[in-house]
Amino acid sequence: MKKTLTAERRNKLAQILLTSGSVRVGELAELFHVSTETIRKDIIYLDKEGIAKKSHGGAMAAMDTIERPVSVKEFENTEKKAKIAAKALDLIPANGTILLDTGSTIYALAKLLTLKRGLTIFTNSLNTAILLTESDNKIYTFGGSVRKSSYGIVGHWADDELSSISLNIAFLGTDGFQNSTGPCSTSFSEADFKKRCVERSRQTAILTDSSKFSINSIYKIADWDDIDYLVTDTDAPKNIRDIIGNNTEILYSE
Known about the structure:
This protein is an alpha/beta fold. It is built from ten helices and 15 strands.
């Protein structure tokens, strides 16, 4: 029971940290009704996990864990993302039913799918849905709340609708790898939606450029043995590639 309470407190502390950017030990001790020493131990734990950076009297959010808008990320590593998207095309079956997640690399794939036809495409990304409406594919989106930073639709309505869908393959983005044990997200609600995508799809592919290999994020989507493919570029660190490659097939862009 004690371990559960500790995990819940640290999870809530991490959410507060990501939202506010910084926290104070004394304020957190009052909020959670625990000692300042307990909060300091929590901060040390989050620091080791790459979520927090200790500061005098408190902690700051590690820069890697702060979610940046997709409108900004879209213009980063654009050439790598385009090549990763082109490689991912090989995974799409003719007349298949697929899901496109949020994220700038997934959006790069969506651009290529405007030239395809005969697919049934589900997406929880507003900008992807708008982009694909003029294509010769069937496009479906979900109900729910819209996240400002990613244009992603999440929540119980989206989850309920997803539960009735069977997918050939889901293409998911990631904000980083949690100590190489699995792809992660900075958003709890998006991580939860992605988990359900993995459950509803025959195959799952993570699309990401090599910059995400050195980033720890907070909410794990799945273990690598639940992911069929990782599509990335050859600049990814070999030691991490070797770990992931034990469970997941890695496809490299040209």
